[in-house]
Specification:
With 201 residues, the protein is mainly alpha-helical. It is built from eleven helices and no strands. Helix 2 crosses helix 5 and helix 4 packs across helix 6.
């Protein structure tokens, strides 16, 4: 689907899966060995081989996007829950342009403007911008667009940007100095707007 991929509707945040894959990766296993162990031991706790391997491929693609940063991989594998989720979100943004632009251009702009509101209107304005950049996005069905919004809102809840389902108030993203340094050293400065709300500290 061009630059922006509607397959996000099937992928979700996958934090638990990402953490499992990161831990196996740190042990020196190859992608094939990781996939084999996850399937044989059913580490994802999925009912079918197809689902296990599909989610494993997605997790490995994301992990590969941060694999050049031992600090981010370590945080994902063994960091505290908040830190590990930040690392998983970074990997997801690095792998998916739609997620990256939503987090930096919508959420990041809200932070910069000290605007703590986030509504469906903000998403649909963002989607209109996507359609202007990539006409193929305009061909997505209404149900696909709705599912993408649901995935993004769930992503925000899982990472503490929204306190509860239905909330329209953003919470500040109080990342640690260590995590900010890891982002900079990994060359992910472009993602900082999604994480930093320094004005609220």
């Amino acid at each position: 689907m061009g630059q922006y991929n509607g397959a996000l509707t099937r992928e979700q945040f996958l934090f638990r899966e990402m953490r499992i894959v990161a831990r196996l990766y740190r042990e020196g296993r190859s992608p094939e060995e990781i996939t084999g162990q996850i399937y044989q031991e059913n580490l994802f706790q999925y009912p079918t081989e197809r689902e296990i391997k599909s989610k494993c491929r997605t997790a490995l693609k994301r992990l590969n996007c941060i694999a050049h940063s031992p600090a981010l991989v370590e945080m994902l594998a063994e960091g505290d829950l908040r830190e590990a989720k930040w690392a998983a979100l970074t990997a997801m943004m690095a792998q998916n342009a739609l997620v990256a632009e939503f987090m930096t251009d919508v959420v990041g702009e809200k932070f910069r403007g000290l605007d703590r509101s986030l509504t469906s209107k903000d998403f649909y304005l963002f989607y209109e911008t996507l359609c202007q950049k990539d006409p193929k996005a305009a061909l997505w069905s209404p149900s696909t667009v709705k599912k993408i919004k649901a995935v993004l809102w769930n992503l925000l809840r899982e990472n503490g940007y929204l306190e509860r389902p239905g909330s329209e108030t953003l919470c500040p993203a109080l990342i640690s100095e260590e995590f900010e340094l890891a982002l900079r050293q990994a060359g992910f400065q472009r993602f900082l707007p999604a994480f930093q709300a320094a004005e609220w500290r």
